[in-house]
Amino acid sequence: MKLRMTSLALLALIGSAVQAQDTIQMGAVLSLTGSNATVGEDVRRAVALAVDKVNASGGVLGKKFNVIVEDSGGNPTTALNSARKLVSVDKVPVVIGEYSSGITLPMAQYLVKEGVTHINIASTSVKIRELGATSFNLIGLENLGNKFSAADTWALGYRKVAMLAPNNAYGQGVAHGFKEEFTKLGGQIVSEVLYTQGQSTYRRELQQMSRAEPDAYIYTAYGQESAVLNREAFELGLRAKPWYAILLSMSLSDTPAAVAQGQLGMEVGNVYGEAGRAYQAAFNAKYKEGTKTSYTGYAYDAVLMTAAAMNKARSTEPAAVQAALKELGKGGYVGVTGPIVFDDQRQRIDPPYAKLKYDGKVVPR
User: Fold this and answer.
1) Hey, CA dihedral for 174, 97, 363, 263, is it positive or negative?
2) Which of 37-46, 140-149, 242-251, 266-275 has the lowest mean pLDDT?
3) What proportion of the chain, given as a percentage, has pLDDT over 90?
4) What domains, with CATH codes, occur in the chain?
5) Which segments within the chain are labelled E, that is strand?
6) CA separation (Å) from 216 to 154, 235, 239?
7) How many angstroms separate the first and last alpha carbons of the chain?
8) Residue 35: which pLDDT band, with cuts at 50, 70 and 90?
9) Parallel, antiparallel, or unpaired for β 160-166 and 117-120?
10) Distances (CA, A) of 340 to 135, 247, 347
11) Taking Cα atoms as reference points, which of 213, 177, 207 lies closest to residue 193?
12) Cα separation, 171 vs 102, whole angstroms
């Protein structure tokens, strides 16, 4: 009996190995559970849609293409373990993700150390630039985003603002960068609060900000925590003043429409041109609803660009894929988020941004 079980296990391993040989794979670490689960699931859908697109176009190197998705749980340790599994067990040459900069940075540092290609699709900390030679970035980082949001809020007529952000790598970067850019324009930050994530209430922080009597509230927050912040601000009467969200779709992804109504904000650009419109139509058709955040397009582009790089390199070896990605990034690869051109540090040049408002859903203004 023991011999029979051993044989069955051996057959299973052989079958798994044969299947792996017949399939070209890459990896993704996404926040499928935790405070950013709404964003993570939205991005997972885009990844699945991209896989469908690649396979409908002939796959990669004549084989079926697949993305192995692992859950970060919204936790840096879990994300790191997921990345280790993708590298050591699944042997993938490319990993995309995560979402929060505080999770992405240690995970990506591990991938770079292992020589595996990392593609950033959502994190905006300027420290992303420092990850190293095997990391590529598709999205606008804080230095550009802060300049855009400061100019936008100034143009809206806000002069004395209160600032609210999470007390992590991302939030600290936004708070510092926005303040620097806004004060250059002549604006004033009359209250600055970095909140601790995971609290059941933020009334104390909100009341502290309101005492400064700002013209407007500038904030950024993750989905489920933002829902608490927005509800309590609404209950405290703070919505009598304008609320402006940096990364609006992220900040409102879990907030009820009645509470979110009328908020303004900015966001990384989501879709562009004919390719973007076709992507949105395909997403709507497959999932019977539109995207909930602006990060899906970046994940979609990352998957398609990886498949294109593998086909261009005629290889799945990380170094060959990285060289092909650089070549694609020289010629202006056209993705659903627009033309993708890399600088010599593998950072996207001139990433898109958008001015948005919430009117039943997040729409352009």
Assistant:
1) negative
2) 266-275
3) 84
4) 2-140+272-351 (3.40.50.2300), 143-269+356-364 (3.40.50.2300)
5) 23-30, 64-71, 94-97, 117-120, 135-137, 160-166, 188-195, 216-219, 243-246, 264-268, 333-335, 338-340, 353-358, 362-364
6) 11, 17, 9
7) 69
8) confident
9) unpaired
10) 15, 21, 10
11) 207
12) 10
Instruction: Extract the tokens encoding 244.
Output: 């402006």
Q: Look at residues 136, 125, 133 and name the one whose alpha carbon lies nearest to residue 333.
A: 136
How many angstroms separate the CA atoms of 76 and 102, rounded? 7
Give, in order, the Cα–Cα distances in Å from 228 to each of 18, 40, 313: 49, 19, 48
Nearest to 248, CA basis, from 355, 142, 342: 355
CA distances from 54 to 51, 137, 244, 280, 300 (A): 5, 21, 38, 16, 11
Comparing 34-43, 109-118, 304-313, the range with the smallest average pLDDT is 34-43
Tally of CB atoms within 10 A around 349: 11
Q: What is the pLDDT of residues 81-140, one digit of tens each?
A: 999 999 999 999 999 999 999 999 999 999 999 999 999 999 999 999 999 999 999 999
To which residue do tokens 């990433």 refer?
351
Cis peptide before 267 (omega within 30 of 0): no
